Amino acid sequence: MISTINIKNIGIIDNLSIDLNKGFNVLTGETGAGKTLIIDSLSIISGGRFSKEMIRKGENYSYVEACIYMPESETSVDGNIIVSREIYENGRNSCKINGRLVTVSELKEFMKNVIDIHGQLDNQTLLDKASHIGYLDSFIGEKILKLKSKYRELFDKYNKINLELKNNYGDEKEKQRKLDLLKYQLNEIEDAKLKVGEDETLEEQRKIILNSEKIAESLEMADSALSEQAIDSINVAIRALEKIENIDKEYEQKLSGLKNIYYDIQEIARDINGMKDDVCFDEEERNNIEERLDIIFSLKRKYGNSIQEILQYKEEVEKEIFEIENLDEINNRLKNELKEIELKMAELAKQMNKIRVKEGNELAIKINKELQDLEMQNAKFEVEVISQEEFNKNGLDIVEFLISTNIGEEKKPLIKIASGGEMSRIMLAIKSVLANVDKVPVLVFDEIDTGISGIAAKAVSMKMKNIARHHQVLCVTHLASIAAKGDSNYYISKEVNDNKTATKVELLTEEETIKEIARIASGEITDVALKHAMELRKSAT
Q1: Are 141 and 433 in contact (CB under 8 A)?
Q2: Do 50 and 539 contact (CB within 8 A), yes or no?
Q3: Helix locations, 130-248, DSSP H
Q4: CA geometry: angle at 303 spanning 300 and 305, to 5°?
Q5: What pTM value is reported for the model?
Q6: Residue 96: predicted pLDDT
Q7: Rounded to the nearest 5 degrees, what angle is found at the Cα of 456, between the Cα atoms of 451 and 462?
Q8: Strands (E), 451-528
Q9: Can you state the angle between helices 172-192 and 307-325, rounded to 10 degrees?
Q10: Distance CA 184, CA 176 (A)
Q11: Dihedral, CA atoms, 133, 135, 140, 143, nearest 10 degrees?
């Protein structure tokens, strides 16, 4: 059960803490006071969707925390599990289970075994027959889940192979067109005879050729300066120092250093002279380099940003050509594999169909019993399981819930027959049956009393009271007959402080509960209303 829920900065809720109790917890109060926001908070802590518009004005985050008492769980500490979710304006989520960070998906997976929320939109879900197979399989439970898991694994392979076959150029004209294109690309790359690093070498050569005149002029100047000036000048200096080298060791050292410089410059001069002779402007060579670079650039534009990538693309093209040319063999292998998978899927689908037909009848019997308890004695509910030829994610079955609400009427889909009040009771009947199967400890009903009153409302209140014997039930209601059945009644109101509205929750005493029942029943608290409220309360116990 949920023992405490803390909510911060959601809608008009500022900072709210609610201590919940076992059994039937009823939430009533003013319109717009925040009753639905409390249910929304339970949905958020269960991994539900969150809109940043829900963040309280002036704040940049929302926070929901729940203390769940589950002594039988290995996750619990002293029987308690603390679950929290913090959501910021920028969309960042922080979810924790007992202080351990988890993803929203992990939070949702954990909480689905703790809480089942029936909101106002669930009736619309029930009208969608695509959801009916999910209800039936939940009722069946473990018996079908194992088969379904095996089937889904095969179904994923089945879809993957079908997609592969579809992409394997089933059309002969398309296959030939693709083959021609790939062969053209392969020939174009092969004809280029590319070498890794070739483009960089060519760019360097091109740069030299384009600057050949400037290079030749500069080398000529350097050669002339060294040969005609520097070497002669250093030679004169050497002869001068040779005349005084014996006078002082320092002169001898300088002479030795100068001679080394002389030999170095002589070597550099020879190198420059040779480089000068090598420089020439060859128009043909330049054109050849330009043409080669154009070919490489064109291939880069088509097949990759570098020669390495182009050659890698070439390997991929060769592989694809091989696959297309050997497509019949590949497709035959895939088709044989597909046949084997289809046989296994068909067998599993047959087993699931048999179980669904049998358990569907059992579900119908249980729901019809629940509907009788909910003042729909003439209603006849039926689970129709139809086996089709095309595989779907659930096998070969299509499941639809049918009902006739009056004697002599033909059973028809829910959407064609059920009124709002009837839909609420049908959903409650289904939830009642599934709650006993799933063993989910907490059930939440948000205004399930829509469209009902009188005897039907009394029957709904009795049903929820019975469910609360084995589950913790939270219910937002506007009906006095439902409020009268509460084990714990909470009054939701709003107050204004410093020009800000905030939600307030009070756990009512027995006297306050009777007054609230009277208010709901008649709109005002009179002696007659109080007497009626006490009668309702008395009948509830």
Answers
A1: no
A2: no
A3: 132-140, 142-167, 172-192, 198-210, 212-224, 231-242
A4: 45
A5: 0.60
A6: 93
A7: 120
A8: 472-476, 488-497, 500-507
A9: 150
A10: 12
A11: 60
